[in-house]
Amino acid sequence: MHILQAIIMGVVQGLSEFLPISSSAHLVIASNLYKVFTGMELSQESSQEIFLDIMLHLGTLAAVLIYFRKDIWNIIKAFGIAVKTSDFSSKEAKLALYILLGTLITVFIAFPLHNAAETLVFSPAIVGLLLIGTGILLFLSETYSKKIAEKSENIDLKTSVFIAIAQGLAALPGFSRSGLTIAAGLLSKKERTAAARYSFLLSIPIILGASMFYPLIKIDMSEFSGYNWKAIISGTFVSAVVGYLCIKYFLKFVGKYSLAFFGYYCIIVGIGTFVFFNIFAGKI
User: Fold this and answer.
1) Could you tell me the pTM of the whole model?
2) Closest CA to 48 of 218, 208, 239
3) Which residue of 63, 181, 254, 283 could cross-link 243, Cys pair, CB 3.0 to 4.6 Å?
4) Is 27 left (phi over 0), alpha (psi -120 to 50) or beta?
5) Whole-angstrom Cα distance, residue 279 to residue 110?
6) Three-class DSSP labels, the chain
7) What is the pLDDT of residues 215-269, one digit of tens each?
8) C-beta atoms surrounding 186 within 10 Å
């Protein structure tokens, strides 16, 4: 693995984790394009590549923790007080319960899909189709949201369950986690910014849990000594920095503008991916 490759993947992860364009799809596309143009088999994936993917996700997790550090602390503090007093009426305490419940729902839905998700890593054409589905959903949710006269900024139980289901389905590469969860928020009559903030907070336990669990079952620790650690650390750092900036400016964007732009992007990239890997990839 070259350091430039890791840095490029870090930029891709940092941008696509929080934009509603599917980070997993872009990592699959970028990885498979690299394999096509270097003559590697699409079904070939090293443990170092798997580990880099995990580290890139930890980089974007760091970005969320740093950006939302005050919100996270307030939620943890409110939850601790609520447990002691048995009073979960505060907004932050309710958010804590919703995030815990949402995490359980996400795991319940995502875990049965993990074999299919792993298979799709080597099927970029199908990932392209799912990316098109993400784009269509963004359009539909935006169209519906524009018809709602009054939208709420408060996340309730029903909305949190709906968003958690969407996050679970996003285990499949091509279905954008942020795209599906924000769309679920819009369909629940919530403001874009509120839906986006909750989406990012809900991602924390899932990314952390997956990053701790996945290496235990997929990676041979004895191979660590042969990894290009300069490349891995560089890619992780880049994904954290790019991810932080992406969160900052994306929240400003969704507060003012429609997500239709990202819908167009997903559809165009999805079509391009499907066509390329179905027709041209085998000829290069």
Assistant:
1) 0.88
2) 218
3) 63
4) alpha
5) 31
6) CCHHHHHHHHHHHHHHCCCCCCHHHHHHHHHHHHHHHCCCCCCCCCHHHHHHHHHHHHHHHHHHHHHCHHHHHHHHHHHHHHHHHCCCCCHHHHHHHHHHHHHHHHHHHHHHHHHHHHHHCCCHHHHHHHHHHHHHHHHHHHHHHHCCCCCECCCCHHHHHHHHHHHHHCCCCCCCHHHHHHHHHHHCCECHHHHHHHHHHHHHHHHHHHHHHHHHHHCCHHHHHHCCHHHHHHHHHHHHHHHHHHHHHHHHHHHHCCCHHHHHHHHHHHHHHHHHHHHHHHHC
7) 555 666 667 777 889 999 999 999 999 999 999 999 999 888 889 899 999 999 9
8) 26
